[in-house]
User: What shape does this take?
Amino acid sequence: MAMELHLTQKQSQTMVMTPQLQQAIKLLQMNHIELTEEITNEMMSNPLLELTAPANTPEGESENAADDPDYDKVPEKTAPRETSEFADTVGNSEEKIREDIDWENYLEEYSSSPSSNLAMGSHETPEETPGFETFTAAKTSLSDFLTNQWRFAALDKSDFFRGECIIGNLNDNGYLAATMEELAKQAGTSEGTMEGTLRRIQELEPPGIAARNLRECLLLQLTQLGLTDSPAYEICLNYLKLLEKKDLPALCRALKVDKEQVLAAIGTLQTLNPNPGLAYSSSDPIYVTPDVYISKVGDDYVISLNEDGMPRLKFSNAYRKLLSDKNSSDETRKYLSEKLKGATFLIRSIQQRQRTIYRVTESIFKFQRDFLDHGIEYLKPLVLRDVADDLGFHESTISRVTTNKYVDTPRGIFELKYFFDSPINRFQGESLSSESVKNRIKQIITAEDPKKPLSDQRIVEILRGSNIKIARRTVAKYREILGVGSSSERKKIY
Assistant: This one.
């Protein structure tokens, strides 16, 4: 069969992501910190955008009052969909942006829909506020701490280099992450020489550093404590498996000592540090910045968005005048016109983003009001479709709003995704959320006798007595998620 070339015409519909639509979706799924950074970057690239005066200053108050009588008001629940729903703005972004704008009457500065009812932030300007690094000192890393000690312990330059090879191959827990063969090849020497260097490195502080496994780490610490002839040293050297099983009679027989001596040895081992390098870890803690606050006022709850530190934008009057100046060149006016459209859509997108987050949060806690009143035990099963149907949004919009965003409630700080949970059936009555069941399992384990911990099957029976229908494997899965060991691991032998 001969091959031939043909021209055919086909009609189809495809969705094209315009730059404006991509920016709108990007802004929607950003959290508070990311949005602040994005606004700052846009200000650097768009000369039409500039900061407005803070609202707490006389200048800022006059601007806000003159330009927008509804500034910082919570959006009304009866607001039309086309003005309050971000999904419609995204879906019809091209129609929402007018090519001809009356700049004399246009809102010159954006404000997020609800104003924060909490006293957040400082009244100082960024220039007056000292940087955080002014009050903090640089943290010494494990590598620097060991290197400073090794400078005085090394015999010569070659010995110092071999020590550096070992120190450079320690992980965050302080364990040696390379073999002697690899270290010897790196340092260009024999394995025996590297073994000698390693033993001297292991004499440095903190005790137990540069060990190759847990047993060696514990033995090094016991050696520095002068306990090489103790039952604790013997347990660590030969009977760690029995200790893991918490087989107290077997340990007594193996060591040929009584129960009190074995318990004392176990107590000594518990004072040792299995991860000596963690105290010098360079990883900084991750601080969560809530995007939404929920505070209780009387018998009701008030939702407010976190605007602390977020730049407040307006259009530059100087560039607007330059754009309307007939003496400006065509190239200048074209450039400013493009930047003007970009600034317009950015401000509108931020407005709609704030309103959408507010409405989604309001809808979530309309379903989860019992959580605010009584706690995690009263958390209800909830899926994205429930909130999407309540607001008339698409599920993907709800997903973007709730991803990587946190809410500060009277019950603590939670990710918005936390309130969407799968159901656990009851024998009678409405289903429960899996989070409330996890919390119930945690309470049961906390209240158990540590000498006789409950098995997973026993926890199942207790939950069934509370009208909760659950399988043993589900209890085991939830227990692992909570970071709780099995009954044998939780058992205390003294």
